[in-house]
Design a protein that fits this description.
two-stranded antiparallel sheet, 2 strands
Length: 57
């Protein structure tokens, strides 16, 4: 049987993942991050807003 036109090109199991720099939870690639996946560090806006600030000396 040939692949149908409605079959997805990728599955959730094959998506790349990263670990959030703030909460430490893994998160998967999203289409909106396609062009900037290398720069993505946080799983969402909340973690980005509450990220730990570097200690200034």
């Amino acid at each position: 049987m040939a692949s149908s036109a409605s079959a997805p090109r990728y599955t959730k199991a094959t998506l790349p993942t990263k670990v959030c720099a703030t909460c430490g939870r893994p998160f998967a690639w999203r289409k909106k991050w396609a062009r900037c996946w290398d720069e993505v560090k946080y799983c969402g806006e909340k973690c980005q807003r509450t990220r730990q600030k570097p200690i200034s000396s």
